[in-house]
């Protein structure tokens, strides 16, 4: 007796997902992610300027600034090491 063939694709062909908006517009996604990072960086600077030194706003400023750097680096182009 022969083994039963696999049922994958036996009735329907495999489903191919259409590309999403984020897949077709990767630079716009990065720009949209930069907007809150820039806004929160400006807000953190304004709070630091108004209230003086505060660990909360200093850490917040560092985190948002690193976010900006990360997305600006991705905006230049994808890394060659990362799979697309």
Strand content: under 5%
Topology order in helix (H) and strand (E) letters:
HHH
Number of helices: 3
Number of strands: 0
* Percent helix: 55-70%
Largest sheet descriptor: none
How far apart, in Å, are the first and last alpha carbons?
44 Å
Which word captures the global form? elongated
Mean of pLDDT: 84
Assembly context of the chains:
single chain
Q: Please state the CA-atom Rg, rounded to the nearest Å.
A: 23 Å
Low-pLDDT regions = none
User: Which class of secondary structure composition applies to the elements?
Assistant: mainly alpha
Features:
84 residues, mainly alpha, 0% strand, elongated
Structure description:
This protein is mostly helical. Helices cover 62% and strands 0% of the residues. The protein is built from 3 helices and no strands. It has helices at 21-24, 26-51, 55-76. α2 runs antiparallel to α3. The longest helix has 26 residues, at 26-51. It starts with 20 loop residues before the first helix and ends in an 8-residue tail after the last helix. The mean pLDDT is 84.
Short recap of the structure:
The chain contains three helices and no strands. The protein has 84 residues and is mostly helical. The longest helix is centred in the middle third of the chain and has 26 residues, at 26-51.
Describe the secondary-structure layout.
Elements: H1 21-24, H2 26-51, H3 55-76
């Amino acid at each position: 007796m022969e083994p039963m063939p696999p049922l994958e694709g036996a009735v329907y062909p495999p489903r191919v997902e259409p590309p999403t908006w984020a897949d077709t517009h990767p630079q716009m996604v990065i720009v949209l992610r930069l907007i809150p990072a820039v806004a929160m960086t400006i807000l953190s600077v304004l709070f630091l300027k108004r209230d003086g030194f505060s660990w909360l706003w200093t850490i917040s400023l560092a985190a948002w600034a690193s976010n900006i750097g990360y997305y600006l680096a991705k905006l230049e182009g994808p890394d060659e090491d990362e799979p697309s």
